[in-house]
């Protein structure tokens, strides 16, 4: 009877834990039938996985009697989510789109993980094994791309893994690495014992092959975690330098240092060694600090313009936070950032370096500043408190590997945009829930409805979110088919299809740009500007204002056209196309003096990225200047 009960418990464990594994494997989802399939396929994989885990959570609540114990960080997670949703849905009167839905689903996932970990002590370690597995597979894919055996997902980069560029790919590996390092160190500590077991297994196999096979398989299963971790460590070290992501290197070093420090700090032989060679260790530490300083300086000059550009983005983002202390809503970072950058350059405050490195970023390259802009200062403080409490709870549980990975993620988040990458967000939720599950119930309690209530709320909210997202699947598929006509400049044929897709894809900047441009090319200028106005709520791309200006110019709304072209220029002053359009606009409206002045300004400006189109624009500006000078001479004569 005892054996039967153990088998039943094992079967229930597998049923209730295994559905969470596809959630971690979301990182591998790609599709050629979806528009932007490298990114969008991961979202639809996540939606499907959330449906499975929500159903399993009900089963978990019905079969387990130990109620989940809420901790302070759980309440703060709820408060953070509520604050952000209020800012997004109420202050901006914004329709329910992808980002608010994703926020709700991720909070639900957090509590699903919490419920799972509170019932099964080993569930975190089991899922951690599969998370490390994803890191190994990603590293192998990256190595195959480096050596030309597999194509990358970006035409400009050789190494992307299953992501769309090397940055998120390297960030994912740097987050998984400390977990693998921690378990690799644990395996190394028992390596001598493992070798003895292996020798005994081989001896048994020589005497009796059947029983020997069983012992070898048991040995491999027992040590599989360690072998997997070591393989992941080696593969990651081989591939991550090629990604050229300085943010990931910093995150990896921070997380790995934490793991190494806590792994070795209580070793008696280490303490004796430190006491015996104290002076040498101090001198070595000083030299190491100098070397690291040199490395950081070298990392800065490795991509100097990129580093200066990010510093300027942070400077502008701080201004945007001060302009909108209550937040602007999820997905509206581009609008708030664009306003701050436009005001800065319009007032003539920008230096030549700042003008050169300025851009129209989709992300803040610092997640803490971006949270402050989108969700507000209150939500940012709540998020930071959640992180601090999570680290404290993780230390209490001595969950060193998870904390190391969380530190790597938080370090990477200071210089990149991991919270905009769905697989990394899933790992963040997993780590937060794992570290915050302190009290593992060992004894049975009287049956409680607490778990059932939590799981029912998760299921109902998840169902509502998935119903909201269901039509977007077919919308992405239809968009993928219709954009083939867009790419061949057959604009008239795609307008009916894009009009049908607009209600479902009106938060996708690429779709909005394609739709607005198609409307402009076919003479639907007013409708084009309506779509552009929607796009300007989520992006600060100057091309939106360029098209808007051309639409106003075609409708003879000259003051609005001039304003749009000037705004496009002041948004990103290193781009010459707005000046080109403005010069042609002045020429068309008969203002030749301003046309020549604008053309002269364009010729004096060095383009950030030289191209054939740039040379053609410069020739056109020279024509305008020469024509104006000829007219002046004619008038004098």
Could you outline the blueprint of secondary structure elements for this entry?
Layout: H1 2-17, H2 21-24, H3 37-63, H4 72-91, H5 98-119, H6 123-146, H7 166-189, H8 191-207, H9 209-239, H10 246-264, H11 268-276, H12 278-302, H13 304-323, H14 333-346, H15 352-357, H16 367-375, H17 377-396, H18 400-413, H19 422-436, H20 450-487, H21 491-505, H22 509-521, H23 525-535, H24 542-554, H25 558-571, H26 577-588, H27 592-604, H28 612-636
Helix pairs in contact: 1-3, 3-5, 3-20, 4-5, 4-17, 5-19, 5-20, 6-7, 6-9, 7-9, 7-10, 7-18, 8-9, 10-18, 13-14, 13-16, 16-17, 17-19, 18-19, 20-21, 21-22, 22-23, 22-24, 23-24, 24-25, 24-26, 25-26, 26-27, 26-28, 27-28
Q: What would you note in describing this structure?
A:
The structure is a single chain. The chain is an all-alpha fold and 637 residues long. It is 77% helix and 0% strand. It contains 28 helices and no strands. The chain has helices at 2-17, 21-24, 37-63, 72-91, 98-119, 123-146, 166-189, 191-207, 209-239, 246-264, 268-276, 278-302, 304-323, 333-346, 352-357, 367-375, 377-396, 400-413, 422-436, 450-487, 491-505, 509-521, 525-535, 542-554, 558-571, 577-588, 592-604, 612-636. The radius of gyration is 29 Å and the shape is globular. It starts with a helix and ends with a helix. Mean pLDDT is 82; it is low at 441-447.
Number of helices: 28
What's the β-strand tally? 0
Strand content: under 5%
* SSE string: HHHHHHHHHHHHHHHHHHHHHHHHHHHH
Please estimate the helix content: over 70%
Provide the structure class.
Answer: mainly alpha
Radius of gyration: 29 Å
Shape: globular
Query: Major sheet, described briefly?
Result: none
Global mean pLDDT: 82
Provide the low-confidence segments as ranges.
441-447
Multimer state: single chain
What is the terminal separation in angstroms? Answer: 114 Å
